[in-house]
């Protein structure tokens, strides 16, 4: 049976990984500066992660949410401890798209309204409502387009105000650092005014932290760089270091009711074990401090390369913008220099999303290769 051919694939077959490297079937080593879309947060095959998942699968890999699972409570408490999001409630699911689906559903339940405001170049997933609020018509099927969505320019505060005052908007969903769209960010004034307008107009303020969360921005969540308190926070990607897990942090003002949300696999024992291993490693190895130090080091070198026109993003969620499309550059990096990088909707942007424990030597290796590839 053939695979459904929806992915353009590089001719590379990783079969193992260790730390910031992956290895193909021939034993060739690749520097992984993309982490499978920012999923690999603490490095491939981290000993803490391997031990936690192994021990759990040997004990109990899965049971449904019809029974008590103390691991869920431990994970919730650890997220609260490291993030500082006191009093929030946690709903566990399986992916970023599912996290955003549930975030939007909660907003609609809470407000009794159905329209959503989202922003140009935003990406929130590929399922029903999540893809409808994503700014890419090519991936929105007619069944998704039935959702009530208005997409505005980032930083258009007058547009946000005008739409919210119509009274039918249940949620504004924001990436504080856009991922797939190309690492653009709103201003602090914009985000803070949007938050205030949501409060005034009975609208839920959703922080999509699927890619930017878990320390990648230099704070646990990217919204924490601003003076806002989201009603709902969606998380996934780096949360499980490769194990499929997502979640929604829900403000205490939103009351839970039986049957309001549900999932078969979300919050299973293996997912919780993986999630706890990630959090313990971030804490024990002080990885958020490393994010900030390595980000400064990376940006200082990037500023010395004349072909780089703009450096975008924060922390270890970075983009290098050139005055040409980077598709061929990415191929040179992967095939000639064995370095994985990412692309974006902005075809001139090279995305850098390494594990949070990257070291200076890896950044040096990347820039040495980049200079050669740019010749």
Q: How would you sum up this structure in a few lines?
A:
By secondary structure, this protein is of the alpha/beta class. Helices cover 34% and strands 17% of the residues.
Structure description:
- This protein folds into two domains: 14-45 and 286-374, Aspartate Aminotransferase, domain 1, CATH 3.90.1150.10; 48-284, Type I PLP-dependent aspartate aminotransferase-like (Major domain) (Aspartate Aminotransferase, domain 2, 3-Layer(aba) Sandwich), CATH 3.40.640.
- 34% of the residues lie in helices and 17% in strands.
- The chain is built from eleven helices and 14 strands.
- It has helices spanning 35-38, 47-59, 70-83, 96-111, 128-132, 157-164, 188-200, 269-284, 287-302, 327-335, 360-374, and strands at residues 14-18, 21-24, 29-32, 89-93, 115-119, 149-152, 169-174, 204-208, 232-235, 246-250, 310-314, 317-321, 339-340, 349-352.
- The strands form three sheets. A seven-stranded mixed β-sheet has the order 4-10-9-8-7-5-6, with helices on both faces. A four-stranded mixed β-sheet has the order 1-2-3-13. Strands 11-12-14 form a three-stranded antiparallel β-sheet, covered by helices on one side.
- α3 runs parallel beside α8.
- One of its GO terms (molecular function) is identical protein binding.
- Its cofactor is pyridoxal 5'-phosphate.
Any key phrases for this structure?
single chain; 375 residues; alpha/beta; Aspartate Aminotransferase, domain 1; Aspartate Aminotransferase, domain 2
CATH topology of the largest domain, anyone?
Aspartate Aminotransferase, domain 2
Provide the helix percentage: 25-40%
How large is the count of helical segments?
11
Spans of at least 5 consecutive residues whose pLDDT stays below 50 are: none
The helix-strand sequence is: EEEHHHEHEHEHEHEEEHHEEHEEH
Which strands sit side by side, in order, in the main sheet? 4-10-9-8-7-5-6
Envelope shape: globular
How many structural domains in the coordinates?
2
CATH class wording of the largest domain = Alpha Beta
Family: Belongs to the class-III pyridoxal-phosphate-dependent aminotransferase family.
Organism: Jejuia pallidilutea
Protein name: Acetylornithine aminotransferase
InterPro entries: Aminotrans_3 (IPR005814), Aminotrans_3_PPA_site (IPR049704), Class-III_PLP-dep_AT (IPR050103), PyrdxlP-dep_Trfase (IPR015424), PyrdxlP-dep_Trfase_major (IPR015421), PyrdxlP-dep_Trfase_small (IPR015422)
């Amino acid at each position: 049976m053939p695979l459904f051919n929806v992915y353009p694939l590089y001719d590379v077959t990783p079969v193992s990984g260790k730390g910031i490297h992956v290895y193909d079937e021939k034993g060739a080593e690749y520097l992984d500066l993309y982490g499978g879309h920012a999923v690999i947060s603490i490095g491939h095959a981290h000993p803490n992660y391997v031990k936690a998942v192994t021990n759990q699968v040997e004990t109990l890999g899965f049971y449904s949410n019809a029974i008590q699972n103390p691991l869920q409570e431990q994970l919730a408490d650890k997220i609260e401890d490291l993030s500082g999001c006191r009093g929030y409630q946690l709903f566990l699911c399986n992916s970023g798209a599912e996290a955003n689906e549930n975030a939007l559903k909660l907003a609609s339940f809470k407000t009794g309204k159905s329209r959503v405001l989202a922003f140009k170049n935003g990406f929130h997933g590929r399922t029903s409502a999540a893809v409808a609020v994503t700014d890419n018509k090519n991936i929105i099927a007619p069944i998704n387009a039935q959702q009530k969505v208005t997409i505005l320019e980032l930083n258009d505060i007058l547009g946000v105000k005008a739409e919210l005052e119509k009274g039918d908007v249940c949620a504004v969903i924001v990436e504080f650092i856009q991922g797939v769209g190309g690492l653009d960010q709103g201003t602090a004034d914009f985000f803070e005014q949007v938050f205030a307008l949501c409060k005034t107009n009975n609208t839920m303020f959703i922080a999509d932290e699927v890619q930017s969360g878990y320390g990648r921005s230099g704070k646990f969540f990217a919204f924490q760089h601003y003076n806002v308190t989201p009603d709902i926070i969606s998380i996934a990607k780096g949360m499980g270091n490769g194990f499929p897990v997502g979640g929604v942090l829900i403000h205490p003002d939103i009351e839970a009711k039986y049957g309001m949300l549900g999932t078969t696999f979300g919050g299973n024992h293996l997912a919780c074990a993986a999630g706890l291993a990630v959090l313990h490693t971030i804490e024990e190895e002080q990885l958020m401090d490393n994010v900030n130090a390595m980000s400064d080091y990376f940006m200082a070198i990037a500023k010395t390369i004349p072909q780089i026109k703009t450096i975008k993003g924060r922390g270890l969620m970075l983009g290098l913008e050139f005055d040409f499309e980077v598709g061929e550059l990415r191929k040179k990096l992967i095939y000639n220099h064995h370095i994985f990088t990412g692309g974006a909707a902005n075809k001139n942007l090279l995305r850098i999303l390494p594990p949070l424990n990257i070291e200076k030597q890896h950044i040096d290796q990347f820039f040495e290769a980049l200079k050669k590839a740019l010749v």
